[in-house]
């Protein structure tokens, strides 16, 4: 609906009885010069009905809000179905794999939700409870439609798919070491969101480059494998390895 149509419809709903164009204009703020044109558009689309109580007096009643919302939903879903078949037919193959920066938390989580929603085969996440709170519903929906979900959780989250709780090292130790909460979300090993959250700020990237997505997925898989290994052999034994093995010491040495 246009702005005037929306205002006129709300005025009709709030009235609770048939009202004429003059009353609609007074209650809604729609100019009197355009109110009858606006009401005509509502009637034409079935959102309102004319009620002739007298030969020279016309009132208007709205389609009930529940019915209107159901109708709009059906129309919207129909448009989406049409676009779903039409757009791929005209889409050109990208000349390069998409990659772009994400400069705030809302944009990063919205892009992560896109990746989760688009996954059809597998989904890998490395995530903290603060960010998982927004992603959980979509991740659960992915699991329910048959996506193989693997989550490395830095803290307590509700189980969904296969959850590996990061105990080695403890989440607080990881946070102290990195200085921020890292998030990795990979869908079907073809697109990924990688970023960080700290002190109210957030930054990261989205990439549809399969090489980037594969590396991000491998990061989550290796971290999950480390948690399984720590559970099996014990954290103390792993600590001994990391403190004494020359190969591990070289890889973990800080420059």
Automatic annotation (TrEMBL):
Q: Which residues form the Transcription regulator TrmB N-terminal domain?
A: 2-66
Q: Which InterPro entries match?
A: TrmB-like (IPR051797), Tscrpt_reg_TrmB_N (IPR002831), WH-like_DNA-bd_sf (IPR036388), WH_DNA-bd_sf (IPR036390)
Q: Where is the signal peptide?
A: none
Look up the domain of life of the source: Bacteria
Any Pfam family from its record, for instance, is TrmB
Do you know which Gene3D superfamilies this protein is assigned to?
Winged helix-like DNA-binding domain superfamily/Winged helix DNA-binding domain
Q: Please report the name of this protein according to its UniProt entry.
A: Transcription regulator TrmB N-terminal domain-containing protein
Say which species the protein is native to: Actinomadura fulvescens
């Amino acid at each position: 609906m246009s702005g005037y149509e929306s205002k006129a419809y709300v005025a009709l709903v709030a009235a609770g009885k048939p009202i004429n164009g003059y009353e609609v204009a007074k209650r809604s703020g729609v100019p009197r010069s355009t109110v009858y044109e606006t009401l005509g558009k509502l009637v034409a689309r079935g959102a309102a009905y004319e009620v002739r109580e007298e030969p020279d007096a016309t009132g208007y009643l709205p389609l009930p809000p529940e019915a209107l919302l159901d109708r709009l939903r059906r129309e919207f879903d129909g448009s989406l179905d049409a676009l779903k078949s039409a757009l791929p037919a005209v889409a050109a193959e990208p000349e390069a794999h998409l990659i772009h920066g994400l400069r705030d938390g809302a944009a990063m989580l919205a892009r992560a939700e896109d990746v989760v929603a688009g996954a059809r085969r597998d989904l890998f996440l490395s995530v903290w409870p603060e960010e998982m709170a927004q992603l959980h519903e979509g991740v659960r929906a992915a699991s329910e439609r048959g996506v193989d979900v693997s989550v490395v959780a830095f803290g307590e989250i509700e189980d969904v798919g296969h959850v590996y709780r990061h105990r080695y090292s403890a989440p607080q130790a990881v946070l102290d070491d990195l200085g921020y909460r890292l998030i990795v979300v990979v869908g079907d090993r073809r697109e990924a969101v990688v970023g960080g959250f700290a002190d109210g700020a957030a930054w990261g990237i989205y990439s549809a480059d399969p090489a980037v997505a594969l590396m991000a997925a491998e990061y989550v898989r290796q971290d999950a494998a480390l948690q399984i290994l720590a559970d099996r052999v014990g954290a103390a034994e792993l600590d001994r390895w990391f403190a004494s093995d020359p190969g591990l010491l070289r890889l973990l040495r800080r420059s």
